[in-house]
Design goal:
The chain is mainly α and 109 residues long. The protein has a domain of 62 residues. It contains three helices and two strands. The chain has a two-stranded antiparallel sheet with strand order 1-2. Helix 2 packs antiparallel against helix 3. The longest helix has 28 residues. The protein is elongated and about 60 Å long. The relative contact order is 0.16. The model has no long low-confidence stretch (mean pLDDT 87).
Amino acid sequence: MNEHHVPDDFPRNVATAVVSGASPKVRVRLSNGVYCADETGEERRTRWLICDDLAAQLVPIAKKAANAHPRESVLQTLLRIRAAVKAKSWLSANELEWALRRLQKLLTE
């Protein structure tokens, strides 16, 4: 996979917030002189690299788990890995689902 190109199917994280008060407010941040409500291209690329790397690191773990539980389906193994990674709160829900799809693809290659 090209390290500089984020796949189209990688999720975009949009910052959402509720700010109390009588008048409507929009949550934005200043990034390089521009107000942004979502992540920058570089931030998205960084998140993708993290997710892709995590999926690659999970390959030997998934293979070990499959060998330890030979009667378990690939889906069951992935669900157990999903629960373990979710408990760590490393990724957003969308990133986690992408990383698991990537893991599944890596396991079939």
